[in-house]
Each structure stands twice: as structure tokens, then as C-alpha cells.
Amino acid sequence: MDRKILIVGNWKMNLNVSQASLLVQRLHERIKIHRGVEIVLAPTMLTLQPVSTEIDRRKFRLSAQDAYSKDEGAYTGQVSFAMLRDLVSYCIIGHSERRIYFNETLDTVKEKVSAAVRNEITPIICIGETKIERQSGETKQVLHDQLTTAIADLTSSEIDNIVIAYEPVWAISTFGGEIAKPNDIKDIINFIRDQISHLYGLGTAKRIRVLYGGSVDDNTVTSYLEIPGCDGALVGGASLNYHKFSGIVDKASLVYQKSKIRIK
Ligand code: 13P
User: Fold this and answer.
1) What pTM was computed for the model?
2) Which residue segments constitute the domains of the chain, with CATH numbers given?
3) Mean pLDDT throughout 112-130?
């Protein structure tokens, strides 16, 4: 593994300002600076600003969970990527909860990806099939459509700086939480890189970071991080628990160290 492992904690719609502050304090106590692991926290829009003043930036970077594609204007209730650009390094885009509960379409996701890149925020583009789509053998078609539309407007230099997170909906803890088999995930990660390679060439396909997400915790994370081509994890429920999240970071660090020994 020649790059850092990326661990992203998606807090979803959890933790008010004081609860978020408490979790950050606990994470600081438990997590040390890891050379081989990049740790990203994705609090709610409300808590991003206070959390930004509390984190040690040598340990943590920040991500938003969503933002609006227009930079400013009469869009009541929205926050733009332009407003977030000095606050966050990343933004999760196209999470299945946004696609399912908030009717985000392929085009909405594409516009948000472009807006993120325009504002120098790295998009973490989530793709994943539902259980029904999987059962009807549509997984690859769904992933192909989600992936290729999301990146359709990016130039070949912009594409290098995106992250893809494969999150099968059926594996997300709140949607059923089936434990995905690492071998199945390996096939899909290869499929994702093949799609990128087809559009942007092999070099780009190798450079793009691909994460896995869906019921990842401190017990399962190693099996996913050991999949060739898996660059990290997008963690939901377990990121709210400092024992579990710091455990995930420790395991990631071990996987990184082992990979270094193997390379030598
Ligand atoms: P869980 O880790 O709770 O399954 O959530 C995954 C997820 O949706 C992260 O974005």
C-alpha cells in the first residue's frame, strides 16, 4: 500500500454541539497521530464549525455530509460548497440516504460533484445498489450509472482528486446491515476501477481512492482493508462510539504497517 488509508466517520444526523464536542475530546485522548492513516470526521452542518475549532489538524480533517450545488442565492435552507471551502477538505456526496430519503437523482449528484471540485473540496462519491437491485442482478448496471454520471463533467485532471465509496445499501446498518463478504467487495472495487480505466485510463484508475462502507466496525474493518485496491472505510454507526472508532483507526494503522513490511 503506497498511500495512506482513509478512514471517514459519517456521524449522519447525530450529536448536538455539546455531544459532538465530547466525542471529539474522547477521540483526541484515544487516537494518536498515525503516519499511515488519514482520519476524517463528518459531523452535521451545525456542528462543523465548533468541531473545526476543537480538532487537532495533525490528527483529523473534516468533511461535510452534503451541500448544495449552487454557490449562493435564494435557496432557502441550503449551504453551498463555496461556503464550506475553508472549513472542510471533503464532502460526502450521493449517500444512499440522500438518494432514498431526499430523492437525489443521478443529475443532482453530478452537479454536486462538480460544485465540490470547483470549490476545491474533495468529493467522496457514494455509490451502492439496494437489496432488490442486487437480487435482480442489476448491481453492476446500477453502479455503472451512478459512477459514470457522477463524474461525467470532470476533466481528466480533476478526476484524480475524488474518492469513491462503495456502500451497498443492504450492508448499511440502518438498512439491514448484512455483512458483505470481502471477496464480493473485491470484485466490485475491481469493477469500479475498470470503469474509471475505461473512461480515464489505467493510471487514473489506479490513483483514485476507493473506500468500502457498510457496517464497518473494529471487528470487521481489517478484512475490508486487506482487500487489494481498498483504500479505506466509510464508517457510520461505529464512528459515534469512540472505543470502536479508535479501534478502527488502530486496525487501519496495523494494516498499513503490515503492507509496508510486505513491500520491503
Ligand atoms: P454503518 O456503518 O452504520 O452501516 O453506515 C454506513 C454508512 O452509511 C456510512 O456512510
Assistant:
1) 0.97
2) 5-263 (3.20.20.70)
3) 98
